[in-house]
Design goal:
283 residues; 8 strands
Length: 283
């Protein structure tokens, strides 16, 4: 029987760890310093408490870190301080550079670090997230097997540490920013009494802009006029007492495509221009 340690059982961590129990794994957690809500979640999901982190380190074959991104490196240091020599999965929403730092902290003879990312909602009987895994090829199937027969869809990525984190933040940078932008746009429409019409316009779409990569070159070619439009949108938001930052940021992105005015660029050139500064120099 595989033993999994979860750091820490938040709403996502507890639910993901509980899915590993379906494959027969025992799931450990450490109550020391955790909140009453964490303790309630752990009990609800049938997680086994240990007296201290050091006990988890001794017993766990695999440790999964799912915590707020700002705490990810501290959690890794706590694990490293106990000389862990099993498989450590950093499943946090951190950058590829940060997960590389975490790998350097935890790595020691006998220890293996896996880069993980959870995309989707906490698993339940009705739905489940994807768990992407990258890192040493030999360890990836070991972690993936923990979730066989569960609602967590574990998928492995080639290419080593950093790939899973890059995928997570690539998706999050669109999904979460677009949610915030949608709320700001709706607030502006509501202030002017046209929110119903805004929803009617938006309701005509059935796909995500993120899937329409063929449209990126058209966006770039039109950015010479769309950028100023975004600046005007920022002014309108500011006049309404709403945050203009997202609209201003969109204008800044479009400025990088200034040299593609009314052109017919291919996708590769469009993406390359995003890596250049205002004067066209590579960044």
């Amino acid at each position: 029987m595989t033993t999994l340690g979860i750091l820490h059982p938040g709403s996502m961590g507890a639910a993901v760890a509980a899915q590993a129990r379906r494959s027969g794994a025992e799931v450990l957690w450490c109550p020391v310093g955790r909140s009453a809500s964490s303790k309630a979640r752990a009990e609800r999901y049938g997680l086994t408490p240990v007296r201290a982190l050091s006990e988890m380190i001794e017993r766990a074959d695999i440790i999964l870190s799912l915590c707020p991104p700002a705490a990810a490196e501290d959690v890794a240091r706590d694990v490293a301080a106990c000389s862990y020599d099993g498989i450590f999965v950093d499943g946090n929403a951190v950058s590829p550079a940060t997960v590389a730092n975490i790998s350097g902290v935890v790595q020691r003879p006998g220890a293996t670090v896996i880069d993980g990312s959870v995309i989707g909602s906490p698993p339940s009987d009705a739905k489940g997230p994807r768990l992407y895994l990258s890192g040493p090829a030999g360890a990836l199937p070991v972690v993936a097997r923990l979730f066989e027969g569960s609602t967590v869809d574990a998928r492995t990525l080639p290419g080593g540490i950093g790939k899973a984190s890059a995928l997570k933040l690539s998706y999050s940078s669109y999904q979460k920013a677009s949610r915030a932008l949608a709320a700001v746009a709706y607030a502006l429409a509501s202030d002017h009494g046209v929110e119903g019409e805004l929803l009617d316009i938006a309701g005509g779409r059935t796909t995500s802009y993120l899937t329409e990569t063929a449209y990126f070159p058209k966006t770039a070619a039109r950015s010479w006029r769309w950028g100023p439009e975004m600046k005007e949108a920022a002014h309108a938001l500011q006049e309404a007492g709403l945050p203009p930052d997202l609209a201003e940021a969109a204008a800044t992105v479009m400025e990088r495509w200034a040299g593609l005015k009314d052109a017919s660029p291919d996708l590769a050139l469009v993406l390359d221009e995003l890596h250049r500064g205002p004067e066209g120099e590579p960044i």
